[in-house]
Amino acid sequence: MKISRIAAIASVLFGLVQAAVAQETPKAITIATEGAYAPWNFTTADGKLDGFEVDLANDLCGRMKIECKIVAQDWDGMIPALTVGKFDVIMASMFITEKRLKIIEFTQPYAVDPSGFAVAKDSELGKLGISNERFKLENEASAQAAIDKLKPLLKGKIIGVQAATANLEFVKKYFSDVAEIREYKTTEQHDLDLAAGRIDALFAQQTALAATLSKPEFSDYTLAGPGFVGGLFGLGSGAGIRKEDTKLKDMLNGAIDAATADGTIKTLSLKWLKSDVTPVK
Amino acid sequence: MIDFSFFLEILPKLLAGLPLTMELALTSIVAGFVLAVTLALAQQSESPFVVLPIRGFVAVFRGTPLLVQIFLTYYGLGQFRHQLSAIGLWAVFREPYWCAIIALTLNTTAYGSEILRGAIQSVPRGLVEAARSVGLSTYLTYRHVILPLAFRQALPSYGNEIILMIKGTSLASIVTLMEVTGIAQGLIAQTYRAFEVFICAGAIYLTLNFAIIRALAALEYWMSRHLRHRPSTMSDAAS
Amino acid sequence: MVDAFRLLGFQHGGWGAALLMAASVTVLLSVLGFALGAVFGGLAAAGRLRNSKVLRFLALGYCTVFRGVPDLLTIYLLYYGGSVALTSLGHSLGGSGFVGVPAFATGTLAIAIISGAYQAEVYRGAYLAIDQGQHDAACALGLNRLQRLRQVIFPQLLRYALPGLGNVWQLVLKDSSLISVIGLVELMRQAQIAAGSTREPFIFYIAAALLYLAIASVTGHAFYRLERKAPWRVRSA
Hints:
CATH superfamily of chain B: MetI-like
Oligomer: heterotrimer
Low-confidence stretches of chain B: 234-239
Structural class of chain C: mainly alpha
Distance between the termini of chain C: 45 Å
Number of helices of chain B: 11
Largest interface: A-C, 45 and 45 residues
Order of helices and strands of chain B: HHHHHHHHHHH
Shape of chain B: flat
Radius of gyration of chain B: 21 Å
CATH topology of the domain at 20-132 and 161-182 and 206-229 in chain C: MetI-like fold
Helix content of chain B: over 70%
CATH architecture of the domain at 20-132 and 161-182 and 206-229 in chain C: Orthogonal Bundle
């Protein structure tokens, strides 16, 4: 393990970063977001993080009366970086899924937003148009019927989806037999490829897709088909924390309760996401 | 500590990416070699209209990161879909596979042409003059005298370039291609076991590179058969 | 083109300042990585020149692995694995909590480890290029081991190593772009952020390419001058 020894020596030289110690009441925390998932979280030209989750994070910190630093972290390294203490909380529209719960802990969801497809308006699926239906994957029969309806429309198409997401697991599970699936590091990258015509469909959260499609270069594209929630999508988007940080979990849950109760989540949601994603209890 | 069953679990997954890694490397190395020879020969010309654009191309592709070149080829040119369709090239640039190959090929062409240009210049003038004096044409002089000597001279450096290209294919994972590194990264993100995945994927690359080094050594041995059993005089010029 | 000037400008909403800042991070990252890599490379070269079989084996192993494995993979290892290793080290020393390494330090270390493997080859080659007579002469003058190294071997080693080091430096500069994958906002990363946010990848990747080219040619020229103009210039190069 020569490498780890070198790493150890060098990091002493560079100064270690000691993150918050578990159990005690934290006075300051670092919250990570992706900064590339507009309008949930994104980076502005002057390098600042902004969006629904950035506003919400600041609001929650105000309620908890602790100091918060918000940092950007690549999506695919999010969970490993949390577990090794690069930061204390993930707020990056991360779905609370069973798979992730094996490794980290989540607060209650602060948003529930279905995932769906975006395609060209003149494609077979595009002609179907938007449906406001939501299918819960737990209700297997009705969800399967909706998926079976979509399948023939996506036959032979290329679907772009972000890597290491529940969205990827969903398309892999239900559409890999009819369509080609391409994995992207960020949603911005699959947006570029949809605009370039390299892929035929995107599968992502409908609010994020709607924001992308509102840009002029996507005027030929539309949301199509129903939205899917539950099942492998889990309980919705929650704040991810380390398993041992139980105090922090209680504090965040309390703050989310308060932000739900006084309508802050709804206000921020309508401002950024153009629809209300407040979880229904 | 060491969990062998985990290695056995991820090895086949990683090996599934090996054909793509090799395909990317082989295609770009072969295409790059052909282009590199062409550019190296073209630079023997005295016309600045030929030499200067080539020197510019080489400087740009050697002076910028391969990652930028791949991004530029893939996402950058993706913006010019309509222009590319108009000249019939969109079918090529639409595919991440071909974009990666184009970027890798141009990159290795730039490095390869410099290696070959240096090697051609290192061929002793006397040999060229001797060839001309026995009546060989320019073409025949290149074919039978300059190029064979230059290739042998260039082999060690070109070998390094080939290894760098094998390593370079790992960047294709950035444009959605699932070769060995792309799969490795996915596995790390899923299992959070960086060391094991690194060791496994690293071993695949090292084995591949080792095989290439052995093959190149054999090639060098074969190309220098006329020098064997004689005091070596040519071997110290390369580095 | 007007669009390009606006996007790359320095006014509000332009990305010019951000790109230049990021370029300076690239330079700093490369310089520190290269310098630390010189330490690793020097140690590895010394190891390979030693009589000890174990040292030779370790040094050769280090060079072979990090020259043969894709740099991207090495970077992922340090990024994901580095903190895990440090945290468990911290726990074994009786500490608690987590030990994280900032992306800049991880990046510097990654570049140092990778470039060290290449620098080792350069130093080893340079050492072997020094005429045996120089060692003999230094011995004959009665210089002790340290004096021999400092006054006779080292200056010559550096002059033989300079051209090779210039090549490794260029490699380091370009490799630093890979650190973007672990989230450090250096030039490549900044270009990516700008490209994603404005949906103008072409302009920003061209801008990044030009900045890399500028850094590469300025520093390349500096190495060239060092080689040519230094008083301890080698007779023939």
